[in-house]
TrEMBL record:
This is Endoplasmic reticulum junction formation protein lunapark. It is found in: Endoplasmic reticulum membrane. Residues 11-38 form a coiled coil. Its main location: endoplasmic reticulum. Belongs to the lunapark family. The keyword Coiled coil applies. Pfam families: Zn_ribbon_10. GO terms for cellular component: endoplasmic reticulum tubular network membrane. Residues 309-321, 328-339 have a biased composition (Basic and acidic residues). Residues 218-267 form the Lunapark zinc ribbon domain. InterPro entries: Lnp, Lunapark_Znf. GO terms for molecular function: zinc ion binding. The keyword Metal-binding applies.
Length: 339
């Protein structure tokens, strides 16, 4: 019965999982704060009460037992509460502190595991969800540092490391730097924002274009019908500089390999596009049904031509040759009857 019910349960989405993790994290954080405050309060009460009891026992011992007994054993026995009370307080404080520290460490371990799971889910959001849903999730559940890190543009380094060179090349570079310093200073002063903010690329310069944010109502309806809006696209984020390189369709997202427009890193495709099977080549046509080769066909053709020529010659000879005397002229009908 439980298996049947579990099949009809709705599968949890990324938002539901993050919502559960967020509530558990907040509950554990509140529980940890409450336990820390309780720990401090209990230790404070123990110390105040122990000091009060110690002062009370000291006064009682002084007014009741001091100078009354002649034996030092009796005096030591009467003063035993003053000696044992600090030891009991120390052991009690250590036991309570150990319990609260164990409980707080347990909560910290749970909290660290949940935060790691949350961070892992947030890192996988850009690959599993569309751009709009991923942006909403990062705005709601992600920290400002993670959100800014995922959406910041790439800023190239200003000072490139210099290669080792000879003293002559160093002198030439120093002269070139001295001659070009005023021009460079003027360029830096004229464009300080371009160096600090990094390059700003247009949508047509990216591997995939960005959707237009200023769309009319008709364009939004068409995008909804054709499933071509931001909800049906995935963001191409560079693995090196985490820069936004446009949005690709969900069907081609796993098979797109692109070069980052900011840092130039080649991001390979996540999957290999399936290729169609190779077509079989047609069988070669055979012209000789009898199984002979080309030489036999050629020889048979020449022999037939020679036979035809000999037949023609014999026909002409028979027509040109006169009748022999033995044969004579053909007999008439009367002679044939007499014979």
């Amino acid at each position: 019965m439980g298996l049947i019910i579990s099949r009809f349960r709705r599968k949890k989405t990324t938002k539901d999982i993050l919502e559960d993790l967020e509530t558990k994290i907040k509950r554990i954080e509140k529980d940890g704060e409450y336990k820390e405050q309780t720990h401090k309060r209990v230790i404070g009460l123990i110390m105040v009460n122990s000091v009060g009891l110690y002062v009370l026992f000291a006064l009682l011992y002084y007014f009741i037992y001091v100078g009354k007994s002649q034996y030092w054993v009796h005096s030591l026995m009467y003063a035993s509460p003053l000696l044992l009370l600090p030891v009991l307080v120390i052991f009690l404080r250590a036991a309570i502190s150990a319990y609260y520290n164990w409980s707080l460490n347990k909560n910290r371990v749970k909290l660290s595991k949940m935060r790691e799971e949350k961070k892992k889910i947030l890192e996988e959001v850009m690959d599993t969800e569309t751009y709009k849903v991923a942006k909403e999730i990062l705005d709601k559940y992600g920290t400002p540092d993670e959100h800014s890190k995922a959406l910041k543009p790439f800023t190239p380094a200003i000072n490139a490391p210099s290669l080792p060179s000879t003293p002559i090349q160093q002198k030439q570079r120093q002269l070139a730097m001295l001659t070009s310093t005023p021009r460079n200073m003027h360029m830096v002063a004229a464009t300080p924002g371009a160096i600090l903010n990094g390059p700003r690329l247009r949508s047509d310069q990216l591997p995939r274009p960005l959707p237009d944010s200023n769309k009319s109502a008709l364009d939004k309806v068409v995008d909804y019908l054709l499933k071509d809006g931001p909800n049906y696209r995935m963001a191409l984020v560079c693995t090196e500089c985490l820069s936004h390189n446009g949005m690709a369709m969900i069907e081609e997202f796993d098979y797109v390999s692109y070069k980052c427009a900011y840092c130039g890193r080649l991001n390979p495709a996540r999957k290999q596009r399936p290729s169609a099977p190779a077509l079989c080549s047609p069988p070669a046509l055979t012209f000789n049904n009898g199984g002979g080769d080309d030489s036999s066909l050629a020889s048979s053709g020449t022999e037939s031509e020679e036979e035809r020529e000999t037949d023609k010659r014999t026909d002409t000879e028979e027509t040109d040759h006169p009748p022999s005397p033995v044969e004579g002229e053909p007999k008439s009908e009367e002679e044939k009857k007499q014979d």
